[in-house]
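Box S2. Input/output pair 1.
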Amino acid sequence: APPARPIFRRYLVAAAGMAFLICGGVFTLNALVDPLWYLGGNKLFPRNYPFNERVAKTNQFLAAGPASFDCLVFGSSRATLLDARRIHGHRCFNYSFSAGHVGEFIAFARYADAAGARPRLVIVSADAENFGERPARPPNVPPFIAVKQAPPGMAASYLSYDALGFSLATLMGDRFSARFYDGQLAGDVRPEMRSYQFRENVVAGMTGATYGGGAVADFAGLRAVFPAARVIGFVAPVSGAVIAMRQAEGSLPGLLDAIHGAAPVFDALYDFSVPSAITADPRNYYDDSHFHRFIYDMVAGVMNGERADFGLDVKTLSRTDYGRAYAMGLARTNGRGE
C-alpha cells in the first residue's frame, strides 16, 4: 500500500487549489459587478443597484478625491435622485443613502471633513422623517465612518457571501429596488418602475407621526461641521395624497411648525412637498415617497435660481402664510388633483 502521508499531501494540495479557484471566482465576479463601487461600479452593464450605499458612496467619494468637491449633498433615498451634476457652479458629490437621517448626516459630514472636503455649498434634505417624535431607530453609521478610518478592504468585502449573493442576483435580474445608479453612478429609476405603484408600507411609514422641533439642533450641528459653507435645506416632494392624509389625521400643522422653525438654520430652505399639480400627478412619481429624476432636475433648477414655479421658499414666508399655501394647494388639487 502507498504511504498515507503523500496521499494526504496530495489531498491538501487539491483542496487548497479548489479553495483558491472558488475564492478567485467569487472575488472576480464581485469585482466585475462591483456592488460597493471600489472600481467605479458595474463593469458588465451600466446599472448599479443599491447594496450598501453608505459604504459604496464613501468608496466613490474617496476615489474621486474629497478635496476636489466644493459641494456636498446629504439626504435619504429621495435625494439620491438629485443629479449632483445639475448644481451649477460647483463640483458636487451626492452623499445621500437609503433611510438617511440628519443624525447620520453629521457623522458622514465629519468624515468628509476629516478626508479633506472643504465645501462652499452643502445641500441637505429636511424631510418629515427628521422631525418625527417617534422612537428613533438606532443610527446606521458604519464603524469606520465613526472613527474616521478607511473603509473595509476590497478583498475582504468581495470574498463575502453577502456580496456574492447580491452579484448573482444582479446578473439574474432579481433586484427589487426601484432605484439604480447609472454608469456615471447618478441615481435613476428603473424603466419598468416608471408608472405609479401604491405601496401600503410606504404610505404607512409617512403618516401617523407627531412632529416637533428636536431636529433643529441636529441641522445646526451639521452646519457647524462646515461653518464657511452656504447651506440649502430642501423638503423633498411627496405625493399630494400623503399631505392630504397628514391633514386629515391632524399631524400636518405640527410638521409645518417644525419645518418653519428650522428655517433660520439654513441660508435657504425650499419645500417641494406643498400640494401642487406636480405632486398631484402620479406620472411624476413611482410611489408616494419617490419622484422621478426629471422632477429632481426641476428641484436643482430652483436651487440654481433658474426657476421659481415649484415649491416654496420657506424663509420668505411667515408661519401663517406657510400654512395658507398648503391649505390653498390642498384645495386646488383636491389632495391628489382628481
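Box S3. Input/output pair 2.
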Amino acid sequence: MNRNETNIFYARNLNELFYQLKTIANLKIVGSCTAISALPEKMISTTLIREFNHIEKHERYIEFGPATTLAEIQALGERHLPKILLDAISTVANPFIRNVATIGGNLMDPERRNTLFAPLLAMDTVLEFKSPSEVKYITVQNFTEIPKNHVLTNIRVPLNDWDVGIFRRLGPNSTITENSASFAFLVDSEKGIITNLRIAYSGKITFRCISLENHMLGLRLPLKAKDIPNYIEEAQNEFDSAAKETEYNPVLKQQFLNLVSYSFRQLT
C-alpha cells in the first residue's frame, strides 16, 4: 500500500460500523472532516448512518445525533433551543461550513475543545456512547476521551429556562488556535434569589467554576457592585487551579476575568 494513500470505508448502520471497526485495524471514524488537517491512512465515514442524524425534542431536553449539522440545529430557532447555544453556533465559521460541520465533530476533538464545548458544558449536556455490548452516559463535565470500543451516538441538551445567558467566543474568527476559547454564563432566579448559576470556559484550558457557582446559590439580586471583586477573585482561583499544569498565553486568563466581570455586572 502506498503510504500516502487513504482508504475510505463506509457504514450504512451502527452494526456495520462496529463490524468494520473490529475487523479493520487502525480504522479511524470521520464525519464531515471540516477540522481534519491530515487524513488518516484508513478511515470510515459515518455520513450514511441515518440514526446518527436525528433531532428529537422532549419536554425537558432535546437530543441530537452526532452527525446533525450545525445549520440544521440553528434552523430550529429560539422557540426550540436555548439562545446561548444558537449564539455559539452563529460564531462557527460561516454558513457554508455550518451546512456540513456537525455537533459531534465540534465536541469530539479533545485537543481543540471547539466553540460549542463551553455552552454544552454549562448546560450539563449528556453524551451517549455505544459499543456492541453496552451503552455509557457521560456528562460533558466528565468527558475526557471516547471510551474504548465505543462511538458517540446521541447528545442530550437540557432545556432550562435561563433568565440570563451570555456567550462569547475568543480568538480569530476564521480558525481555531491556541488562543481560541469560548465562555458561557447562565443564571436562573426565582423571586430575586439566584437558584442556578453556571460559568464555563473552554479552550486550551477547560473547566466549570463549580465552587463559585455553589457559593452564589441563594444570593439576592441585584448583586452589590462592591462584592463583584470578590467573585472575580474566586473565579481567578478556579482558573489557576484548572490551568496549573498547562502552559498558556496570559491573555486567556485576562479575557476570562474580563468576561466574568462583565457577566456579573449584568446582575447588579
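Caption for Box S3: The longest strand covers residues 193-203. The mean pLDDT is 92.
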